[in-house]
């Protein structure tokens, strides 16, 4: 008789990795925009988006490698929430994710935004919601659903190639980001959205909660919680 599969273990050190990666992620995104718009002087030019996407793919590969090297740390609450649901690890794993890992990511993102604003005061104030709350929630929820759907598909296919898996997900995320950027900013990361909203002072509004937390977090719950 084969032994029963072991239940997922709680790994407290991931909290530190989550915090560090979340801080680095918001800094990386802001630095790319500063480099493209300020350093290269491409603000308002059509080629700016192509350069941004190219640089985004590069740092997405870097963060994918860091996630693997750290044993599962992540910069995105949706990633750890989906992983907790998919693991069927029981209440302990869910509680650890909800009350330790996700808050660490939020704190890390806030610290990252504070650092980048202190270092580069002209960095801006992040993406803003440019439509009504319900329209924005639909757009952000749909964008997140499409990204999660691809992640689930790749997981089910058990793709072994790190390069191909990261290439597909990074291209898909950038495509969805471009399509939704004029509506919600195409953030698809509640921690990053909160960090920029906190810097602006609008992080406690109903619109922010609905669009950047409730709508995106519903997608991994729907995909993995069935």
Automatic annotation (TrEMBL):
Signal peptide: none annotated. InterPro entries: Aquaporin-like (IPR023271), MIP (IPR000425), SIP2-1-like (IPR044226). Keywords: Membrane, Repeat, Transmembrane, Transmembrane helix. The chain crosses the membrane at residues 12-37, 57-85, 133-154. It is a multi-pass membrane protein. One of its GO terms (cellular component) is membrane. It is found in: Membrane. GO terms for molecular function: channel activity. SUPFAM superfamilies: Aquaporin-like. Pfam families: MIP (PF00230). PANTHER family: AQUAPORIN SIP2-1-RELATED. This is Aquaporin SIP2-1. It comes from Miscanthus lutarioriparius. The lineage of its organism: Eukaryota, Viridiplantae, Streptophyta, Embryophyta, Tracheophyta.
């Amino acid at each position: 008789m084969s032994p029963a599969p072991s239940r997922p273990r709680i790994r407290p050190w991931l909290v530190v990795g989550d915090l560090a990666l979340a801080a680095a992620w918001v800094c990386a995104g802001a630095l790319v925009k500063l480099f493209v718009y300020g350093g290269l002087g491409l603000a308002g030019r059509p080629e700016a988006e192509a350069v941004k996407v190219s640089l985004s793919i590069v740092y997405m590969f870097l963060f994918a490698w860091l996630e693997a090297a750290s044993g599962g740390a992540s910069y995105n609450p949706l990633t750890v929430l989906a992983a907790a649901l998919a693991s069927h690890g029981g209440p302990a794993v869910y509680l650890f994710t909800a009350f330790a890992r996700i808050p660490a990511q939020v704190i890390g993102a806030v610290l990252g935004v504070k650092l980048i604003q202190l270092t580069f005061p002209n960095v801006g104030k992040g993406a803003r919601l440019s439509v009504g709350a319900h329209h924005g929630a639909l757009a952000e929820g749909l964008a997140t659903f499409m990204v999660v759907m691809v992640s689930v598909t790749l997981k089910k296919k058990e793709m072994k190639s790190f390069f191909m898996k990261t290439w597909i997900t990074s291209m898909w995320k950038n495509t969805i980001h471009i399509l939704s950027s004029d509506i919600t900013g195409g953030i698809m990361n509640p921690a990053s959205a909160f960090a920029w909203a906190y810097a602006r002072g609008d992080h406690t509004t109903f619109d922010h909660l609905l669009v950047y937390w409730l709508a995106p977090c519903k997608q991994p719950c729907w995909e993995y919680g069935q």
